[in-house]
Design brief:
Largest sheet of chain A: none
Oligomer: heterodimer
CATH superfamily of one domain in chain B: P-loop containing nucleotide triphosphate hydrolases
Strand content of chain B: 25-35%
Strand content of chain A: under 5%
CATH superfamily of chain A: Phosphate transport system protein phou homolog 2, domain 2
Number of domains of chain A: 1
Number of strands of chain B: 10
Order of helices and strands of chain A: HHHHHHH
Largest interface: A-B, 15 and 16 residues
Number of strands of chain A: 0
Shape of chain B: globular
Order of helices and strands of chain B: EEEHEEHEHHHHEHEHEEHH
CATH architecture of one domain in chain B: 3-Layer(aba) Sandwich
Distance between the termini of chain B: 35 Å
CATH topology of chain A: Methane Monooxygenase Hydroxylase, Chain G, domain 1
Distance between the termini of chain A: 47 Å
CATH architecture of chain A: Up-down Bundle
Number of helices of chain B: 10
Largest sheet of chain B: 6 strands, mixed
Structural class of chain A: mainly alpha
Helix content of chain B: 25-40%
CATH class of one domain in chain B: Alpha Beta
Helix content of chain A: over 70%
Number of helices of chain A: 7
CATH class of chain A: Mainly Alpha
């Protein structure tokens, strides 16, 4: 059993880790919101803010990794503490990737001229997909902050809906390109945005499953939707 | 899991003071089981009941069963039980006036073996198993207490192995040793479990995590949790275990 003074130093590092994790998570979520906002409004200054956020997220990731390595090297955590440290190390990568995808979406947005981007008003599925994805990230982050495993147990099923919307966005964009209502270059960019959103949702799933492990110690395997429906039928 | 030893409903007293209460667990053959817990939780008493050492303390008594290969050790001759269930103590205790050689052969000699060839062979074998042979082979006639702390502890392990026990009990075998000597004993525990069943009492939870296949956590004389070591340290089932191993006790 660690000595009382050692435990105090350990608690201090654990608190610092948690605070940085919460900040990083909030910034990642903010980055997606701003990326989508910048795109839909055609506001270049909002899109450019995402680049700064991405840098901050990356900096936090490095700080968190350092804290985790220190915690392991100096305090040899076990049980819930161990799960918190290893989960933080893993989630930090997911959050960093989410920040990167938000930046990628902003890069797409900046390729358009200022003002509302062409044809987006007709594409109803993209905002819907963005809304779903942001909600998934929000749920996963909230579960981490509140240490609530129950709220993310069904996150794979929620991701199925995002995957379905991803397919629908593709169909919708292609249909609009075929009729000539949407320029090919713009359509290709929207398909990219949808792809980035789909990947962000995948990272939200990772975070959710890792929160379940952190809180309960239970490992939930990631199962593809097709295999999951096979299992439930079998 | 094949149990080499089984403890069933075991309670032990020192006079009126109950040191362990209704403990039941199995010790798997050819595996290492660690017993952890705060001072005074009964972990040393528990292993001292396994080879009937507990009853050597005046006014100490035991209730319940301790089975060795299915037979209660309390229905057997204590000397023969201790031959099959050897013990290594916290502080290395080589015989103060004996040479390295004499210390290791003592067990066999006390049991009546006089054949020099047999004794030589047994001493070399035990010292090799205790990973000490290379360090003492040229000084077998020198006093055991002249060795370093870590070597003395391995000498005591060699002494325990000479009578070819089936179970080896270790009561905090590394608590007086530096990290290098500790690492040697831990490596040794790894090798020993191929031939023996090892039970180790330790204050050092990292040591339990490193060497043991199973870990038992005791508190106030009771067995709180017994599980595979990895499970116990990654995902303890009991709140009390979690609190103890993470240092959130008291």
């Amino acid at each position: 059993m660690p000595e009382r003074a050692e435990r105090k130093a350990f608690e201090k590092s654990l608190n610092e880790l948690n605070e940085n994790m919460v900040t990083m998570a909030e910034l990642s979520e903010l980055a997606i919101r701003k990326a989508i906002d910048g795109l839909s409004r055609g506001d270049r200054s909002i899109s450019e803010e995402v680049f700064t956020l991405d840098q901050e997220i990356y900096g936090l990731q490095e700080a968190i990794e350092g804290t985790c390595v220190d915690l392991i090297a100096l305090h040899a955590p076990v049980a819930r503490d161990l799960r918190t440290v290893t989960t933080s190390l893993k989630i930090t990568t997911d959050l960093d990737r989410i920040g990167r995808y938000a930046k990628d979406i902003s890069e797409v947005a900046l390729q358009f001229q200022a003002g509302p981007p062409p044809g987006l008003a007709d594409l109803v599925k993209i905002p819907k997909m963005a809304e779903h994805t942001i909600r998934m990230v929000d749920t996963a982050i909230d579960a981490f902050v509140k240490r609530n495993a129950d709220s993310v147990r069904n996150i794979m099923q929620v991701d199925d809906e995002v995957d379905r919307l991803h397919d629908e966005v593709f169909q919708e964009v292609v249909a609009h390109m075929e009729t000539g209502r949407l320029p090919i270059a713009a359509g290709a960019r929207y398909i990219l945005v949808a792809r980035h959103l789909e990947r962000i949702a995948d990272h939200a799933v990772n975070i959710g499953l890792r929160v379940v492990y952190m809180v309960t110690g239970e490992t939930m395997p990631r199962i593809r939707a097709a295999d999951r429906s096979k299992r439930s039928r079998g | 899991m094949t149990s080499k030893m089984t403890v069933a409903g075991l309670s032990a007293w020192y006079g009126p003071k109950k040191a362990i209460e209704d403990v039941s667990l199995d010790f798997e053959e050819h595996a290492t089981t660690a017993i952890i817990g705060p001072s005074g939780c009964g972990k040393s008493t528990l292993i001292r009941c396994l080879n009937r050492m507990h009853e050597t303390v005046p006014k100490a008594r035991v209730e319940g069963k301790v089975l060795l290969d299915g037979k209660d050790v309390y229905d057997q001759d204590p000397v023969s039980v201790r031959r099959r269930v050897g013990m290594v103590f916290q502080k290395a205790n080589p015989f103060p006036t004996m040479s390295v050689y004499d210390t290791v052969e003592a067990g066999l000699r006390l049991n009546g073996t006089r054949d020099r060839k047999v004794l030589d062979h047994a001493v070399k074998g035990s010292l090799e198993k205790a990973a000490l042979w290379d360090e003492v082979k040229d000084s077998l006639g020198k006093p055991g207490i002249g060795l370093s702390g870590g070597q003395q502890q391995r000498l005591c392990i060699a002494r325990a192995l000479t009578v070819e026990p089936e179970v080896l009990l270790m009561d905090e075998p590394c608590s007086a040793l530096d990290p290098i000597a500790t690492a040697k004993i831990e490596d040794l525990i790894f090798d020993l479990k191929k031939e023996y069943t090892v039970v180790i009492v330790t204050h050092n939870m990292q040591q339990a995590a490193r060497v043991a296949d199973y870990t038992a956590f005791m508190y106030l004389g009771k067995l709180i949790e017994f599980n595979r070591t990895r499970e116990l340290f990654e995902k303890p089932q009991e709140e009390l275990t979690e609190k103890y191993i993470t240092g959130r006790f008291g």
